[in-house]
Amino acid sequence: MNRSDLPRIIIFLIIAIIFPGNAGFAARETHYISDNSLKKYGVIFERETYSSHFIVIQGGKKFYFADGESVFVYNSRIYTLRSPPHVTPARIYLDADFVKNNLNVTRPSYKGDDPPPSDVNIPNKEKPSVALPETKNNYPDFIVIDPGHGGRDPGTLNKRYREKNITLATSRHLYKHLRKKFPQTRVYLTRHSDIFLNLEKRSDIANEIMRPGEMGIFISIHCNASFVSRVNGFEVFYLDSNPSNDEAREVSLRENGIADGPGYAKKLESVLINTQIQAESKMLARQINRSLLASMRGTTVGRGVRKADFSVLRGALMPSVLLEIGYLSNPREAAAMNQENYWQKISVGVENGIKAFVRNRPGME
Ligand SMILES: [Zn+2]
Fold it and tell me: For residue range 26-37, what is the model confidence (pLDDT) as tens digits?
């Protein structure tokens, strides 16, 4: 130590006194706490077999994690972590900052058999505070509208119409409508023109829009097709990796189609999909279906809420639905789907469905 170091040391000491927990933050390493040390505080870890995902539960609060991902999901909202969790076959290690801020623990100490990835020192805090925002708006923070297909992927075809054009026209109308009806919500389109977007890119766009603590909604717009030309109606799908029947599986195969690029399966594994987002997607699908039944009355029929394994819904970290607005294989319905009147009724149904979803959505406990 020489005299010129003195001012720096004094500043360091002042900081250390003001922020005792953060002393030495300039060269701070990540501190982790193991699942084993958290057990005695009633923290439960649920691991999914064959998956990098796990759930941390304490007193009715559920936090969703994925190995190596610097985010967690709580109450359908995404939050950033300073350091990703570290998962070994035997143990799960959580960032001590997360533990300190979000779990009700007092000075956990490491008592496990495995060496931890690093120190497990955490500053003594009398009352750990929950750092999550408690705001519950009566509108979503953002809505992403995804016009299905585009560019070299035309989607379903009939003699006169292409799915990609109808989905774009409908989505543009819906976009303008929702911007008017939800002035405080940011509304986006994944594509504005006839361009090709792979499915991964679509959910990436949605996820990039999301800021920590926000609640967003993702709606993908499609048209259905059947070998039986008189079949008509709209359907609302939500993600489920075990589709309810063969028909739903067939729809998901067609919609996933050529856009399923290489490496997609791997990407899926790294993305946090969780049961809460799925449950909320189901609620959103039901509300939109109910409102569409009202707005589409006299125009077409509702064929119900269905579950399907759509790749485009898999990557989104928010409540997501896929809307099949009608059947292109039905000549009358195909012509109707090219009318602004049809887009308007779809838009009103979606608007009211989102409003009902936000109203009835369970808040923070
Ligand atoms: Zn489609």
Answer: 334 567 888 888
Res 278: pLDDT? 79
Measured in Å, residue 358 CA sits from the centre of ligand 1 at 27
**Would you list the DSSP string of 62-77?**
EEEEETT-SEEEETTE
pTM for the full predicted model: 0.62
Mean pLDDT of the chain: 77
Kindly give the distance from the C-alpha atom of residue 194 to the centroid of ligand 1, in angstroms, as a whole number: 14
The kind and range of the H/E element at 272 are: none
What pLDDT score was predicted for residue 5? Answer: 61
List the beta bridge partners of residue 46. Answer: 55
The CA 16 to ligand 1 mean position distance, Å, reads 58
The boundaries of the domain holding residue 39 are 29-132
Give me ligand 1 centre to Cα 149, in Å: 6
Q: What's residue 64's pLDDT?
A: 81
Report the separation in Å between the CA atom of 208 and the middle of ligand 1, taken as the mean of its atom positions.
23
User: pLDDT grade, residue 341 (50/70/90)?
Assistant: very high
CA distances from 180 to 62, 184, 216, 325 (A): 35, 9, 17, 21
What's the 354 CA to ligand 1 centre distance in angstroms? 22
Residue 137 forms part of a structural domain:
no
In a shared domain, residues 127 and 146: no
DSSP of 89-138, one letter per residue?
SS-EEEEHHHHHHHS--SS-----SSPPSS-------SSPPP-S-----S
In this structure, are 348 and 221 located in the same domain?
yes
| Burial of residue 112, with CB atoms counted within 10 A of its CB: 0-12 exposed, 13-18 middle, 19 or more buried | middle
How many angstroms does the Cα of residue 108 sit away from the middle of ligand 1? 51
Question: How many A from CA of 157 to the centre of ligand 1?
Answer: 10
| CB of 126 closer than 8 Å to CB of 104 | no
For residues 122 and 156, membership in a common domain is answered with no
Q: Give the domain CATH number at 305.
A: 3.40.630.40
Same domain for 256 and 178, yes or no, is: yes
CA of 251 to the centre of ligand 1 (A): 9
d(Cα 283, Cα 291) in Å, to the nearest integer?
A: 13
Query: Picking from 35-39, 201-205, 259-263, which range would have the lowest pLDDT averaged per residue?
Result: 259-263
Tell me, in angstroms, the distance from the centre of ligand 1 to residue 216's CA: 22
Q: Would the pLDDT of 267 be above 60?
A: no
